[in-house]
């Protein structure tokens, strides 16, 4: 069962989609992309559950308020940080204290990378990481990935091999799962033929980072 929680932030109200936390041994919080909310097929699939992991999706205030365009990066980070720093106000105390993995798709993955250190994350999961804008390969965002890597935190990217925002072979020194034949939209539905690849990559990463085996 998913519980919806709406929280005020300094940039507007954020919405949390909170999965089952009972018996969890780790917490995975996921952000969404710049053109979507938190109900895309890949995020919905992950929210179906990973044994031992409580999964939360956060919708940014711009989505909750019905706006069509995401605000500047620092405002996304600000809302994300505020919500996660007060997670003991919307999670049971035991769940709020669980080891934390940050993640997201596209812009949400960038936010996760930029905020991993101040939030004390154990690792970062990046779905469809936008390494560069389409056809602008000279303006790369390796620096955001390097925040995580240089801190010695585990980082895993799940990327379509036809993603115009960066194909798997464009990434340097990053653990990566390739989704064949897919672009920036990893899955077309939750029962997509490649769903098992995405779900398996997320499960394996979370299990390794949280030492659940």
UniProtKB/TrEMBL annotation:
<dbReference type="InterPro" id="IPR046879">
    <property type="entry name" value="KANL3/Tex30_Abhydrolase"/>
</dbReference>
<protein>
    <submittedName>
        <fullName>Unannotated protein</fullName>
    </submittedName>
</protein>
<feature type="domain" description="KANL3/Tex30 alpha/beta hydrolase-like">
    <location>
        <begin position="26"/>
        <end position="176"/>
    </location>
</feature>
<dbReference type="InterPro" id="IPR026555">
    <property type="entry name" value="NSL3/Tex30"/>
</dbReference>
<dbReference type="InterPro" id="IPR029058">
    <property type="entry name" value="AB_hydrolase_fold"/>
</dbReference>
<dbReference type="Pfam" id="PF20408">
    <property type="entry name" value="Abhydrolase_11"/>
</dbReference>
């Amino acid at each position: 069962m998913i519980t919806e929680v709406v929280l005020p932030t300094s940039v507007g109200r954020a919405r949390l989609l909170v999965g089952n936390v009972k018996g969890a041994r780790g917490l995975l919080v996921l952000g969404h992309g710049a053109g979507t909310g938190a109900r895309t097929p890949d995020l919905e699939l992950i929210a179906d559950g990973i044994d031992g992991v409580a999964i939360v999706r956060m919708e940014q205030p711009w989505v909750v308020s019905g706006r069509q365009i995401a605000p500047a990066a620092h405002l996304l980070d600000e809302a994300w940080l505020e919500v996660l720093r007060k997670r003991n106000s919307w999670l049971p105390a035991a769940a709020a204290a669980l080891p934390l993995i940050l993640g997201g798709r596209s812009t949400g993955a960038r936010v996760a990378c930029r905020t991993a250190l101040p939030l004390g994350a154990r690792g970062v999961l990046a779905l469809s990481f936008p390494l560069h804008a389409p056809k602008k390969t000279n303006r790369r965002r390796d620096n955001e990935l390097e925040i995580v890597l240089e801190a010695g935190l585990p980082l895993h990217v799940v990327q379509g091999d036809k993603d115009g925002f960066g194909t798997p072979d464009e990434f340097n020194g990053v653990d990566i799962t390739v989704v064949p034949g897919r672009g920036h939209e990893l899955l077309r539905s939750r029962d997509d033929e490649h769903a098992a690849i995405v779900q398996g990559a997320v499960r394996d990463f979370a299990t390794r980072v949280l030492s659940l085996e």
